[in-house]
Design brief:
Elements (H helix, E strand, L loop, with lengths): L13 H7 L3 H10 L5 E2 L3 E2 L4 H14 L2 E6 L2 E6 L1 H7 L3 H12 L6 E2 L2
Antiparallel strand pairs: 1-4, 2-5, 3-4
Organism: Nonomuraea insulae
Keywords: DNA-binding, Transcription, Transcription regulation
Pfam family, one: HTH_20
């Protein structure tokens, strides 16, 4: 499998990051990953088809919000909190705070 591209922090742009979190499903994934735990793609649950969820994960990765790691046939994803906080100080905390208050993306969950 081809290794996915993860943009360096300097390559992350504000419009792309904001566009990535503008979708409620993607924002729900970010909220879920905000606990700084790596999650398996197959453990994520959202009210969309698996192919659609895969697309959402790609958008988050391409924007620089997440890091994807493959181990055998499984893929894992984690939030790139340190890179985001270094590039856009305070942005992630503000977005997560409002998303939590408004329950945006609460339909995204994880199988434990």
């Amino acid at each position: 499998m081809k290794q996915p591209h993860h943009p360096a922090p300097a390559e992350m742009t504000l419009p792309r990051v904001l566009s990535a979190v503008s979708d409620p499903i993607r924002l729900g994934v970010v909220r879920l990953l905000a606990d700084d735990r790596e999650r398996g793609w197959g453990d994520l649950r959202a009210p969309v088809a698996k192919s659609t969820l895969s697309h959402h994960l790609k958008v988050l990765r391409d924007a620089g919000l997440t890091q994807t790691r493959q181990e055998g046939t499984r893929c894992y994803v984690r939030l790139r909190r340190a890179d985001l906080d270094a590039r856009f100080p305070g942005l992630l905390a503000a977005v997560l705070s409002v998303a939590e208050a408004d329950q945006v993306g609460s339909e995204v969950s994880v199988v434990e």
